[in-house]
Design brief:
This protein is α+β, with helices and mostly antiparallel strands. The protein is 36% helix and 23% strand. Helix 2 links the parallel strand 2 and strand 3.
Length: 499
């Protein structure tokens, strides 16, 4: 575990590690203090003095986590190493469950199911992937290094973190690990590793990045992934989505200066060309060979980037701001594991009321849509103007975000079933069955349900779920009362439910 100026968070992280239920063979903790100046070093030394499992190595500040992680791997004695950040938390059974999975499947890499605290995001596969052997393509959406890895794989393969200020250094590292791994296992029925976001955190990933150095790292990851799986096209597609396109959504693009827009677009275009060559994709033309792997707006962005068309990127960003999903919940029920919501959804434009005062804005959107439809044709041919104006169902998955009184989302539940039709939906509109597992959020006491579209829709803000009627029942040992406002009030069975 690298540690730097973590005095405000390290106590909780250490307590979670020291409270671990012993995995097979036990465990040691190697902590590399990277030149802390806030008292972190003294905290670590005091903890190591009372717990023989802790070893602390002090070094001068390197400015980046790569070097302390390499020092930790060199000093470790165990068969496996698990990288942990100095402000995150492990579930009490994390090491035992991961160690057991590693032994059972003779795994080279164990990927823990991750949870989040404080609003920090985690990859969608953490919500739905079942524990057991997986492929690289199943977990490629997150290339963070917070994994348990066979130490001999790192030593014999000479796999090390880049030292110094290298963007996506953990992604470069993990892509090398995956390329040399024979067996990867996903572990944990519930989150084992909790990624914590702190308001005052000066996390390295939040610092300003050089566009060309960032995109250079993305291409390096792509080269490492080639040969790691027979699903290399899936890997490159996910890499483009998660590491390139997210830089060009409406939030990032419209808040950037013209100079930053120009540099990021130029760097991204070069990286897309390089990645396309790895899988024989020409990103400059919206060909079905690759465009069908992306949503219409994503495909439009890719073509615009490669063609250097920043005006089109600007129009897409402004359009994305206005597109919103509309969800209708037709039925609510509960069983021993959680809530079940029967939902239908459609695409609309915010402020699309004919009597609204922003008709001029909507007219501009309509012109943009027509221009897109007569351009490369990806967006127009796939969805069409009428569809984007509210006459098409939302493609892909729908999720419920359970938000507590802290006003931060703590859990997302992926839809697990899609029906062709359901009573109460418009004719021809597919309905979704969305599960909300209450055992993961029940300890919060109260929550509010929001909905958003996953992956397939360029939507920034979730939509408050308004239910057709209140619901009251029991599930997971809790009594549940859901109001029309979308607020769910929970109480232990036998206790009164708040009004």
């Amino acid at each position: 575990m690298p540690a730097h100026d973590a005095a405000a968070t390290i106590h909780r992280t250490l307590a979670a590690i020291q409270a671990q239920k012993e995995p097979p063979g036990g465990f040691e903790v190697v902590i590399v203090d990277d030149g802390s100046t806030d008292g972190t070093a003294a905290i670590l030394d005091s903890a190591a003095h009372t717990d023989a499992r802790l070893r602390v190595i002090h070094q001068s500040n390197s400015g980046w986590p790569g070097r302390p992680r390499n020092v930790g791997v060199d000093a470790a004695l165990g068969e496996y190493v698990l990288f942990v950040d100095d402000d995150d938390v492990l579930a009490p059974t994390a090491l035992r469950e991961m160690g057991t999975a590693a032994k059972r499947f003779d795994a080279d890499v164990v990927v823990p199911r991750m949870g989040t605290e404080g609003g920090r995001g985690v990859a969608a596969f953490n919500r739905h992937l079942k524990p057991g052997p997986v492929e690289v393509a199943d977990v490629i959406a997150s290339l963070c290094c917070l994994r348990m890895i066979r130490r001999s794989l790192l030593l014999e393969g000479d796999i090390r973190f880049a030292e110094g200020a290298v963007r996506l250094e953990d992604g470069i590292f993990m892509s090398q690990v995956y390329a040399q791994s024979d067996r990867i296992v996903f572990a944990g029925g519930k989150p084992l590793y909790i990624a914590v976001r702190h308001e005052a955190s000066g996390h390295i990933s939040s610092r300003r990045a050089d566009p060309f150095e960032y995109m250079k790292s993305v291409v390096s990851i792509g080269h490492n992934l080639v040969g790691s799986s027979d699903r290399v096209e899936d890997l490159i597609g996910e890499l483009v989505r998660t590491k390139i396109l997210r830089r060009f959504d409406s939030v990032h693009w419209l808040q950037s200066s013209p100079g930053d827009q120009r540099m990021w677009a130029k760097a991204a275009a070069a990286s897309l060309v390089a990645l396309g060559e790895l899988v024989k994709w020409d990103f400059g033309v919206a060909a079905p060979a690759w465009s069908q792997r992306f949503t219409p707006l994503q495909a439009e962005r890719i073509v615009a980037l490669v063609q250097g068309n920043r005006r089109r990127l600007d129009r897409l960003a402004k359009l994305e701001q206005l597109i919103k999903p509309d969800f209708t919940v037709h039925k609510v029920s509960a069983d021993a594991t959680g809530l079940t919501l029967h939902v239908s959804a459609s695409i609309g434009l915010s402020g699309a009321d004919p009597a609204a005062s922003n008709r001029r804005k909507l007219a501009a959107v309509a012109r943009t849509l027509r221009a897109l439809a007569t351009g490369s044709g990806t967006l127009g041919a796939t969805m069409g103007l009428r569809s984007l104006l509210g006459r098409s169902t939302v493609p892909g998955d729908v999720a419920v975000i359970v938000q507590t009184d802290t006003a931060r989302p703590v859990h997302s539940a992926r839809s697990v079933e899609r029906k062709k039709s359901r009573p109460g939906t418009r004719k021809g509109d597919p309905g979704f069955v969305v599960r909300v597992p209450l055992d993961r959020i029940a300890e919060q006491g109260t929550c509010t349900l929001f909905m958003c579209a996953l992956d397939e829709m360029p939507v920034g803000a979730p939509v408050l779920v308004r239910l057709p009627a209140t619901y009251e029942g029991e599930g997971c040992g809790w009594r549940i009362k859901v109001k029309k406002s979308g607020r769910a009030v929970l109480a232990r069975v036998g206790e009164s439910v708040a009004a």
